[in-house]
Design brief:
By secondary structure, this protein is an all-beta fold. The strands form 15 sheets. Strands 48, 49, 50, 51, 52, 53, 54, 55, 56, 57 and 58 form an 11-stranded mixed sheet that branches. Strands 1, 3, 4, 5, 7, 13 and 15 form a 7-stranded antiparallel sheet that branches. A 6-stranded antiparallel sheet has the order 2-6-14-10-11-12, with no helix packed on it. 44% of the residues are buried.
Length: 809
């Protein structure tokens, strides 16, 4: 085996297949990493390449390379791998896949090969004799590589169709590899602890190519032994992924000696209580038999991994009362009783009256996406409708929210919204605890979503929610449900909205009521980054248990109805603490490895208003508008009192989150910023850095350029404050990464280098400390950026009559 260094980024996913087969690992190339190569990845932007790609790195499209049935945004592709002087063969390595306690191993991969013609359509460029791609595997560094999947032509000559070599004799004799990505499956013989996959690619000129995607390893999880908790100890040893854990006595993860644990399966004996305390977890790979009772405290997590695993609580004495499991969730900090929280039930058969009994029975709502139409908008909630689709994101006739009764069931995966009741708001401002009782949700859960094409240019809102007693990973949710990454089954745009109430209801905020909440209070997550809402808290890339959230149905699918799928693959054992509306004390720190440059900018006012925008340089994005997964629009940007966003020079949309290619970021990069305000009272605005990540942004100064007065502010050193008139300003501010250099005759001076003092009779004197310097000009602006004086000078000290200046205190 070749010795290689590898940081394996293979998501451990679990999806049901046949009886109990589990997806152990997947490499889908949607994010960088997860493999190594024996040569550097390269492309000549034509027909010589060997790299992870979205198809834009080489000659594609008409008379170029073209693939069908793409499985996502990215794949690995190779053509003429010796064309740029690289040695043959080129190799891909996927190593250290944990297969311990799995049997019946299986390998799956999607393959495609370009079938287009060249030379004006007269010749199809296929494979020559000797061209081949070969997949092999090795278990536990045995030194023996076993054949898995071979591809070559039929050994008849040049430009022949690549075929599966069924008997590994160097001659293709099976099904053809076409330009349509198709899955191929092969068994892996043997068992062990670690699996390595090697892909050997020998394609040596004249347009021979291959494309590879969705490499998956499947197997059957085995529970090989049993351990029992007797109230004091685990006997004979502590549980792990291969053991069945039996709880014969109460177990509480907050008790010393009773920590979080992972087991292959779990049995809770009758009368026994399992308590999963805050910030702790219990993770079970396969089946759970709950003959006792499970209590999951706020921010605790109960996770089942295998999607085909069962959860059975019919043997519990609490089953008939829907009390075999209870999941506690706290609201975030509530300032007033009428502040909404978005909920989703982590248990089955729960009613609004039981779970949300502290909420107002007149303020429990479900959202009906089929009724949403936004063809008109108003200004300042003035009831004067103007034609304009998707401007304010408010339903035109207010028929989308439906009141839910106390006996109505909360459907798993559906999102709901409710306020606390005024009578239950007895402790005033603070966090309030809610309890969900019933059978824990588990496995595949599908939720209907839809769009109303009565108006095709508005936003297709749907309110859904995390259905599990654990957090879910946003990126795995996107991979399953986004149209961009899963065009076969995905229905969503690739952005989700979390309510983070911070602004009091206002009569000038657009909506269907006399007083309405602010749209800017939604926190956002898309494929590029996460964006804080009104409370200033930036979300993590996880959705906690019980959290409801908005998504949008894509305009791309032909059907206006579809489903969103939740599965156990998305569930995680941590990151269950950040519940939105989020309180400052509950914010969680993301632990993902920082690889991409991202910049979060805040705009605030001295009256307490807050807006945030973010620009991220991520693979797959471009400098153009790439849709909601990369470029999230600023909803209601010009109908709110105040909004802050970035703008694209070639597009009119205002973006809350902007994704750009990593190759766009250099010292010459310019980020165009815009803002809108409808504030007519004197207000001080401040632009500041909230946070940044990535090597470039960490090593270069971030400047804010004010084009109105041609000044630069080092935002790393300090914030920039200004005043302005009401209006929309899309050309005033830019983020840049260098300043114009001073000429040899210019000197940058500080405030300490210049003395300014007021004389009698409205005269003001300017004097330089350095007697070798001469004042050439002085420009004086007001706080609105308007030029008041443009004064000329020729001496070290100059005095001017400034009668137009207002007296200062």
């Amino acid at each position: 085996m070749q010795v290689k260094s590898l940081h394996l980024i293979v998501c451990l996913l679990t999806v049901s297949f046949c009886l109990s087969q589990t997806k152990i690992a997947e490499l889908n190339f949607e994010t960088p990493g997860g493999y190594t190569t024996n040569i550097a990845e390269f492309t000549d932007n034509g027909r010589d390449y060997f790299l992870r790609t979205d198809g834009t790195d080489f000659n594609h499209g008409t008379n170029g390379v073209l693939f069908n049935n793409l499985q996502g945004g990215f794949y690995f592709a190779a053509q003429d791998t010796d064309g740029e002087g690289a040695p043959l063969p080129a190799r891909l390595f996927i190593e250290n896949i944990d297969i311990s306690n799995y049997t019946n191993l299986e390998f799956r991969v999607h393959l495609a090969e370009d079938d287009q013609t060249t030379n004006g359509g007269t010749r199809t460029e296929h494979w020559d004799n000797g061209d081949n791609v070969r997949f092999t595997y090795e278990i536990d560094n045995s030194g023996t590589n076993s054949n898995l999947l071979w591809i070559e032509n039929d050994n008849v000559g040049a430009n022949r169709t690549p075929l599966i070599d069924t008997d590994f004799d160097g001659i293709g004799d099976g099904v053809a590899i076409t330009d349509t990505f198709t899955q191929h499956t092969r068994p892996i013989t043997g068992t062990g602890n670690l699996l390595d996959i090697s892909i050997r690619i020998r394609l040596n000129g004249n347009h021979e190519d291959i494309a590879i995607d969705n490499i998956e390893i499947w197997g059957t999880q085995n529970c090989t032994s049993t351990v029992t908790w007797d109230g004091t100890n685990w006997l004979p040893t502590t549980p792990n992924r291969s053991t069945t854990a039996i709880l014969a006595s109460n177990y509480n993860t907050s008790t010393v000696g009773q920590p979080s644990f992972t087991a292959c399966s779990l049995v809770i004996n009758p009368g026994v209580n399992l308590t999963v305390s805050s910030n702790e977890y219990v993770q079970i790979i396969t089946d759970v038999t709950n003959n006792g009772r499970i209590a999951i405290q706020n921010t605790g997590s109960f996770v089942q991994v295998d999607n085909s695993a069962t959860y059975d609580d019919t043997g519990s004495s609490f089953f008939t009362t829907d009390n075999a499991a209870v999941v506690e969730r706290n609201t975030s900090f509530i300032n007033q009783w009428y502040e909404y929280t978005y909920w989703s039930s982590p248990v089955a058969n729960e009613t609004f009256g039981n779970a949300l009994f502290q909420s107002s029975q007149y303020r429990r709502f479900e959202f009906n996406a089929a009724n949403f139409v936004d063809s008109q908008y108003e200004t300042n909630n003035d009831n004067t409708l103007v034609n304009g689709s998707g401007v304010d994101d408010i339903d035109d006739n207010g028929d989308v929210w439906f009141l839910k009764g106390s006996s109505d069931l909360m459907t798993p995966g559906v999102g709901y919204t409710a306020t606390h009741s005024q009578d239950a708001f007895i402790f005033g401002a603070g966090s309030y605890s809610y309890s969900f009782r019933g059978t824990l949700n588990n496995g595949n859960i599908t939720v209907p979503v839809q769009r109303n094409d009565t108006e095709t240019n508005d936003t297709n809102w749907n309110l859904i929610g995390n259905p599990y007693p654990s957090a879910i990973d946003v990126d795995l949710f996107f991979a399953e449900n986004n149209y961009l990454s899963n065009p076969t089954n995905g229905k969503l745009d690739g952005e989700l909205y979390l309510w983070s109430h911070a602004t009091a209801p206002d009569g000038t905020a657009n909506g269907n009521q006399a007083l309405n909440f602010s749209f800017s209070d939604y926190a956002r997550i898309n494929g590029t980054a996460e964006l804080a809402g009104g409370d200033g808290i930036t979300p993590t890339r996880h959705i906690p248990s019980g959290q409801g959230f908005f998504v949008t149905y894509s305009d791309n699918p032909a059907s206006t109805t579809g489903t969103v799928t939740f599965n156990n693959a998305m569930r995680v054992t941590n990151n269950n603490t950040q519940f939105f509306r989020a309180a400052n004390t509950n914010s969680a720190t993301a632990t993902a490895t920082i690889t991409n440059n991202k910049l979060w900018l805040n705009m605030t006012t001295d009256t307490g208003l807050f807006n945030q925008t973010v620009i991220g340089y991520v693979p797959g994005a471009t400098a153009a508008n790439d849709g909601a997964y990369y470029d999230a629009k600023k909803n209601g940007a010009t109908i709110a009192d105040f909004s802050f966003y970035s703008v694209l020079p070639s597009d009119s949309k205002k973006l809350a989150i902007q994704g750009k290619s990593p190759s766009d970021l250099d010292l010459n990069e310019t980020i165009n910023l815009g803002f809108f305000n409808n504030i007519n009272t004197p207000t001080i605005y401040t632009i500041s850095i909230n946070q940044f990540q990535g090597e470039f942004l960490s090593n270069n100064t971030i400047y804010l350029k004010d084009n109105l007065i041609n000044t630069y502010q080092d935002l790393n050193a300090g914030d920039y404050s200004f005043t302005t008139e009401a209006g929309e300003f899309n050309n005033r501010f830019e983020i840049v990464f260098n300043q114009p250099s001073l000429s040899v005759n210019e000197t940058l001076i500080t405030s300490e280098s210049l003395i300014i003092y007021e004389d009698q009779d409205d005269t003001v004197t300017f004097s330089l400390h350095n007697k070798d310097l001469t004042i050439k000009s002085i420009k004086i602006y007001d706080m609105l950026g308007r030029l008041l004086y443009n004064l000329k000078g020729e001496n070290n000290t100059e005095t001017y009559n400034l009668t137009n200046l207002n007296p200062t205190a």
